[in-house]
Structures are given as structure tokens and as C-alpha cells.
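SAMPLE LOG
Freezer: B-3
Tube label: C17
Construct: single chain, 174 aa
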Amino acid sequence: MRTAFGLLFIALTIGCDKKTTAAAAGVAAPATSASAKPPEQPWFVGTWSATYTARARDVQSPKDGYVKEWRDVDAGDFTGPGTVTLQIDASGRITGSVEGALGSLSATGEVNDDSLRVTLQPKAADAAQITSAYLIAARAGNGAKGTLSASTGDSLRVRQADIALARTSPSAGQ
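STRUCTURE (predicted):
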């Protein structure tokens, strides 16, 4: 009888090992499937571009009317066309540049939910040039729309432009 119980124990042990191995193999198979789809990139990933037409922004002191220096400044300086090119990575980090009527500016910023916030800095420091600028845009359909605002270091020339960004190339993997 001991022999019968021993044989039964060995048969059950071997049978359990085979079932455990088969179950483990079944669980691992879907995880290594070749048909797994890579995760989708966020909406903003890729290269974006826009053109702009900078215009003089009317600046007025609410108390005394115009400051004399603002009236004497040539409204044609830093007005006209230009381009914006931005690269946005999957973390929402923005880099790029602006070229044209506002000068040559470097862009850095980030994406927050459905908005882009970009600080623009001159590539060469000169207080008579545009020294303070930013671009704020909100997601609109497949693009983003917003405003580019800029001023010279002396704050006498304040400029503004409407921006409509469009993706010119998606990220790799999209």
C-alpha cells in the first residue's frame, strides 16, 4: 500500500509541475506579444511653425494719457512679418526660434494641459532691440492659436502679433 501511495504522490507532483509550467507560460505569452501597440504620443509632440505680422501696440497710461516718449517713437520699428518655429518633446518642453521683424529670438517654454507658454530671448543683447517677449497659445483643433507680445529694453516700442501654429512634422513614432 505504501508503494501505491508513493506512486500516487509522485504522479500528482509531476502533474502539478506540468500544470504550473503551462500556466506560467500562458501568462507570459501575451506580455511578449509582437502586436503590442506603442503608447500614443501627447497631442503637442513634434515641430510647429507659424508666420506673424508684428504691429505697434497702443500703449497708454490710464491716468495722464500718452507718455511723451511713446508718442515720439517711430511706430514702424519692429513691425512686419516673421516666422516662429518650435520643437516640443513628449515631456512638454519647448525650444525653438523666432526670426523676422522682431529680430532673432530664442524660444524656451512648456506645455501646460492645452496651452503653450513660451519665453523669447534675443540671441544678441541690445537694449534698443526687442529684449522682452513671450508667446501664449491655446490648443485649437489640430493647431494652437495665441498672441506674441514683445517690447524693447526701454519699453518704448511695444509690439504684438496674432499667432496660428500648425504642426509641420510629427514626432518619430506617430
